Amino acid sequence: MKTFNITGRCIPELHYMVNLESRLEYAGRLVEKGQYFVINRARQFGKTTFLWALNRYLRWDYIVLSLDFQKMSSSRFQSEIVFARAFGREILKVINNKKNPVTGLGEKEIADLSDDIKENSEFDLVTLFEHLSELCAGAQKRVVLMIDEMDSASNNQIFLDFLSILRGYYLDRDVTPCFWSVILAGVYDIKNLRQKIRTEEEHRYNSPWNVAVNFSVDMSFSADEIAEMLRDYEDDHHTGMNVGTTAQMICDYTSGYPFLVSDLCRIIDEEVAGSPGFEDGSKAWTKEGLQEAVRILLLEKNPLFESLVNKLIDDPDLKRMIYRIFFAGEQVTFNPDNRVIDSAAMFGFVKNVNGRMCVANRVFEMRIYNLFLSEAESDSKSYQAGSMEKNQFVRDGVLNMDRVMERFMVHWNDLYSFGDERFVEENGRKFFLLYLKPIINGTGNYYIEAQTRDQKRTDIIVDYLGRQYIIEIKIWRGEEYNCRGEKQLAEYLDRYHQKKGYLLSFCFNKKKNTGIKQIKIDDKTITEVVV
Questions:
Q1: Strand 515-521 to strand 524-530: parallel, antiparallel, or no bridges (unpaired)?
Q2: Of 148, 188, 351, 507, which has the maximum CB count within 10 A?
Q3: Is the Cα torsion angle 153, 157, 163, 169 positive or negative in sign?
């Protein structure tokens, strides 16, 4: 039986996978044209799986030499001669692999390379490329070179020298035999390699790899692709899930980030199914089962989340920018020339949405919100109040959101009513989330609707034991604006198939009475809380 894989490359015979055919065809067309290109994507974005599949896809028409720099220790980069020898040996290992040997290369050229590595104490990069050129010249098919995990070498000057010589051979390949196509894969965009190792005296971004064309394929998974993978699973398990709906919900949470898609599916299959309330697959592969899987995922400690948090810790400018977007509702223009934004995009943490910088997916956003809120918990009176009162809000597994809103109003008026408009714009939604977090923590989740998040308005969706609560938070901007907000919330409730919603307004109009009231709009009920 296949499984959902989150470690290492995926193998079609062993793992449930998204169909990569269209992406392979695109890469195949680049190779057919003799292009050199780089697949730089965020960590755990399926690069290794894609290279392995591309190797399979190309090997009938090309001779493919596929290397993984992760297998070369840092000592291999201590000098040019050591690196050249190590690279040559890796090439020979690939060619002579007992399970999948590479055929079609000249035996004399292979032997010459092997002998020279053993006998020539001055075996350097120039010598290495002379042998590689001879291998390509004597090959029965065009030769394609793949290098995975190039980041393992990207902070080393020797690797840049290697790329420079490779570029020289590319430019001269009409007269000097060379690789027909070269494919590199890693997190870092090749143009940033110089940035990683430059000295204080050298501030140039002189990439040694300006011959590469753009690899513009979207490697995130669409809802349709996730659905195709789930159909494969359903053929094996017969859970009765609504494949299309489930796939769309997974896509909504992950924005198709491959690791997150696979991990959510794995958690539903291996951890949610069979747990209390989800005794079998028919109950696990539901909206409620997915919400439980998200809750479990957000508590995981995995390399992807660690990388996300470490990036925020290591880059205070990025952390401040994300914080302002989350809590002050600022809109930041997506500008790839901005170092902070470009770095965050390269690591897959943010993306461009209609010219604005947004967190890449809902899961990342919830994880970052939890980080920011946890840093404020110990000194937050809102969090302390929510913690002290949390037992009064849940009865028989149902969250009493009306009571939550009522008690938050009391605490806000007691603690923060002195705040001016700027104070509220920067802190209002944070203090509400700090109050809410200990109440739902460990059982429920919340996320922010990105489409409505700005300084004027934020919609929060709370998932608690299969029920959803829609809460709009906004700054009071007058009666007319407020009426529009009520209608918008009613329309928004339709999208989530809810009959009831909540409107939390922070008001500075002294003529406006604070308090709670209920509003009916068609068949919708809105509980409005004004503080």
A1: antiparallel
A2: 148
A3: negative
Contacts (Cβ under 8 Å, ≥6 apart) of 162? 83, 87, 125
Digit-coded pLDDT (tens) for 153-196: 655 778 888 888 999 999 999 999 999 999 999 887 666 555 45
Tell me the residue type at 488. Answer: Q
Categorize the per-residue pLDDT at 454 as very low, low, confident or very high, splitting at 50, 70 and 90: low
Q: Which two tokens mark 373? A: 């809120």
Beta bridge partners of 184: 38, 147
* Helical residues (DSSP H) of 396-453, grouped into ranges: 401-415, 421-440
- 289-329 tens-digit pLDDT: 999 999 999 999 999 999 899 989 988 998 998 888 888 77
Mean pLDDT of the chain: 88
CA distance 115 to 253: 55
Beta carbons of 401 and 468 less than 8 angstroms apart = no
Q: Where are the alpha helices (DSSP H) in 140-242?
A: 157-171, 193-197, 223-237
Query: How many residues make up the chain in this entry?
Result: 531
- At 238, list the tokens: 């017969």
Residue 172 sits at φ, ψ, to 5 deg, of: -110, 15
Tell the CATH topology of 21-197: Rossmann fold (3.40.50)
| Rg of the Cα atoms in the chain | 28
The strand pairing partners of 275, in sequence order, are 278
